[in-house]
Write a structure and sequence with these properties.
By secondary structure, this protein is α+β, with helices and mostly antiparallel strands. Helices cover 33% and strands 26% of the residues. The protein has helices at residues 16-38, 41-47, 76-82, 129-132, 136-140, 164-175, and strands at 53-56, 61-66, 69-74, 85-89, 96-97, 102-108, 112-116, 121-126, 148-152. The strands form 2 sheets. It has a 6-stranded antiparallel sheet.
């Protein structure tokens, strides 16, 4: 008998997940085709498996990766543990760091903590807003309150980091 893998896609029984995936692909197809005619964006998306993925360190930093750029900050778990953040110390644009190096610090009313680079690379941008509004880290840790953007030297370093599910497990273990 034929196994599901032998059947053409249209003859396979549809699960809700498959239906959603097919609908998502169908919805994106015209936009991707249009982009492909004008730019190489569609090709880049297919070739880069790490487009817009988020990775986490055991020390509660995150890296949101888009191509060769990682947007780095501290996680919501970290800001909650620190309490009210009163100061964020960031490096200079152009500074280079190895994976695991301290690139700055964050101070709260309770404690000061170093912040470590999840990947090796060069700082391309710092979030200037945090010098005036460090408390933004408490309300938007994993979005607007990113710390730095790093141009990665070697994206294979991401392989050692955790995905969202693994990080959630890590936090649950740490909380007990």
């Amino acid at each position: 008998g034929a196994t599901p893998a032998d059947k053409p896609e249209e003859n396979r029984p549809r699960t809700p997940e498959m239906s959603a995936a097919v609908m998502f692909r169908s919805a994106l197809r015209p936009a991707v085709q249009a982009a492909g005619r004008r730019t190489a964006a569609a090709t880049v998306c297919r070739q880069a498996p790490r487009m817009m993925s988020t990775y986490f360190t055991p020390a509660h930093e995150y890296g949101k990766v888009d191509g060769k750029i990682a947007t780095v900050g501290i996680t919501d778990f970290a800001q909650a543990a620190l309490g009210d953040i009163v100061f964020v110390d960031l490096p200079e644009v152009g500074d280079e760091f190895e994976k695991g190096d301290s690139f700055g610090s964050v101070e709260s009313v309770k404690a000061a903590s170093d912040v470590y680079a999840p990947v090796s690379g060069t700082i391309t941008e710092i979030n200037e807003v945090l010098s005036d509004e460090p408390g933004m880290v408490n309300s938007h840790a994993e979005s607007d309150a990113w710390f730095v953007k790093i141009e990665m030297e070697d994206d294979s370093e991401l392989d050692d980091l955790m995905d969202a599910d693994s990080y959630k497990e890590h936090c649950e273990k740490e909380a007990h």
